[in-house]
Amino acid sequence: MKYVVSIGSNECQRENMPLARRRLTELFADIRFSHEEETIPIRLHRSCMFANQVACFHSDLRPEEVRARLKDIEREAGRSPEDKLREIVKLDIDLLMCGDCVLKPEDWEREYVQEGLNYLKMHSL
Questions:
Q1: pTM of the full predicted structure?
Q2: Of 5, 39, 46, 73, which is least surrounded by CB within 10 A?
């Protein structure tokens, strides 16, 4: 099944974004990443810019299993429930699409997601 994920961080991006790419590559051999982009925070009061990126891969794992592995990577980057209250996002990896099913329509429409998907289409995944 084809999966699309979004990756984001507004804290320690220089460490956490490469960590996410490294761990995802270890899990999903055919993964392809869009360019990393800097974006403004949405619905947050904290003004720290985000690093965002989109990735596509194929896996025989069920969506729940993929999501569990994504959450493991977030925890490895130090993400904790307490950070959410302080609007700190050390690492967020969201499952946007499984097969043909878009799971987060609002996120799917974001400019960096659409640009990332277009980039990935042009570069063969």
A1: 0.92
A2: 46
